Amino acid sequence: MRYELYYWPTIQGRGEYVRLALEEAGADYIDVARERGAASMMRMMETGDTPPFAPPFLKAGKLLIGQTANILLYLGARHALAPKAEAGRLWAHQLQLTVTDFVLEIHDTHHPLGPSLYYEDQISEAKKRTNEFWKDRVPKFLGYFEGLMEEGGGGFLTGRKLTYVDLSLFQIVDGLRYAFPQRMKAFERKIPKLCDLHGRVASRPRIKAYLASDRRIPFNEDGIFRHYKALDV
Amino acid sequence: MRYELYYWPTIQGRGEYVRLALEEAGADYIDVARERGAASMMRMMETGDTPPFAPPFLKAGKLLIGQTANILLYLGARHALAPKAEAGRLWAHQLQLTVTDFVLEIHDTHHPLGPSLYYEDQISEAKKRTNEFWKDRVPKFLGYFEGLMEEGGGGFLTGRKLTYVDLSLFQIVDGLRYAFPQRMKAFERKIPKLCDLHGRVASRPRIKAYLASDRRIPFNEDGIFRHYKALDV
Lengths: 233, 233
Prior knowledge:
Two copies of one chain form a homodimer. By secondary structure, the first copy, chain A, is an alpha+beta fold. The first copy, chain A, has two domains: 3-78, Glutaredoxin, CATH 3.40.30; 86-204 and 221-231, Glutathione S-transferase Yfyf (Class Pi), Chain A, domain 2 (Up-down Bundle), CATH 1.20.1050.10. The first copy, chain A, is 57% helix and 6% strand. The first copy, chain A, contains ten helices and four strands. Chain A has a four-stranded mixed beta sheet with strand order 2-1-3-4. In chain A, a hairpin with a 2-residue loop joins strand 3 (57-60) and strand 4. The longest helix of chain A is centred in the middle third of the chain and has 30 residues, at 123-152. The termini of chain A are far apart.
């Protein structure tokens, strides 16, 4: 079965967590809007009995699955990217939902007044929110994941096998380095295990090939992780 | 099996979506922090192999399950509060994750600069964000759910049977009425089906009994839905 991934064609965004899972799995997929344009995605959002609220969504045979963490829940079970037993499956999903919460807070650093206004209309608020974010939220979220790496000792977040959560944490570290190079450089000594994990994921053959390919869209200032000098002080 | 629900004892918050599911299911549960204090919850967060990032979390036998939508995924399968087949189960979960996104945006109306500052320190930003919220986000989110109710025609969001998503949408309507009585009053004519759903859920015997009991914590200004006159104009 060839999967159809639907996501905005010019950004990594939330779709990137799905792309990383599909790439690591070696799955056969097409990144629809990149090949056929965003209009094909918008049409798909308005058809069928289970219309998604927003991209990304995945067509898998007859299923149309929306919400990033939900897509990963589905793919994890099919491509050995999550534990099989119920307890482990729920645990990996729980961690992914915590990543989801963090991603939304990352987005809010440049959009504290909401997604419907431009960054340029909320720069001073963005500075305040970003300061709070780095003072309280980054230590809380990344400290939590670092602690789990320390406790576990298996090299991956849930043990000795890679899951989609590890791929997502790779993306978090990668994105924070892009968006906040100075702040992140100062912070990284507090999360050595997550930095190791980032390197280990990046060097996996399929991920390495993906990152070097043009399937990996470069970071830019339309995505979740945006580099604004005013926010990286 | 007696479930143990762990959540802040003085607010509805994110725990309320779980409480509503447990009540509708007629499940045997104890609301631990309300009976034994919040310290018992904090201790539980620091023990075991799968420590949750934040409340709510549910102890179900040996399982400790965190993240509201993840808990509902688990309970839905066990208490007939979600479709059994994979497609329906994923669809209900996808909708719950969209509710989750909306809940975070509701929270951000009074905390646009982040959860680590007081509301009183961000009132003018909260006014701006709340205006955007009602102009763009409420119509988008509630319009989406209203559209699904229209398309489906079964009386509940995913068809003719109640799921945990219906319980959550009851809570959304109930909370918006509490937090923004004037704004919501003007908006409700656009979501007649969701208002009907709210009434239908409220009149179910177990939910009705729950809402009349002291197990239902009143809305207040420490939770997600806060009534600030400055934001309801």
